[in-house]
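Progress report, Aim 2. The chain analyzed during this reporting quarter is listed below.
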Amino acid sequence: MEFFELIQKRHSIRKFLDKPVAPELIERILQAVNRAPSAGNLQAFEIFLVQGQKQRAALAQAAFGQEFLLQAPVSLVFCTHPARSEWRYSQRGTSLYTIQDATIACTFAMLAAVDLGLGTVWVGAFDEQEVSRAIGDPPGLYPVAILPVGYPADQPVHRSRRTLDELVHRLDES
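Predicted structure tokens for the chain:
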């Protein structure tokens, strides 16, 4: 798919078909994530692939009852891994770069999923401790995004966006 077409096709999907995602599609998404840029190529993030009904229900509860997390057959939980960045970048690495790494990786997953005919929605509203519990309380990792992945049950209409004149602040030499 042409890149700009892909961007136009991406929507926040909150209704998923009751249809499993083939393992080879999940693998392609994860391979795309592994190509995401990261500060110093340290990849200061970890991904938890959640497919079990019990864990998906726990994620939905941790995300303040967002039931589509239970409906989607797969969720990817992106966590920061500050220790991977701290040795090189100190505080800036642990407080910023690791978050950037995880969120860029999540963006790559989102776009790869759309390219494969799947739908996603970025979930950032959740109780961090509850999400950590749902993925097994990994020490030293902090969840920053949940990405449910599945086949869209409907196709939302495009919502209006800010104009570029509102969004972009152009600076020149004068």
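Strands lie at 45-50, 74-80, 119-120, 142-150. Helices lie at 3-9, 23-33, 53-62, 68-71, 82-115, 128-134, 164-167. These observations will guide the mutagenesis work planned for the next reporting period.
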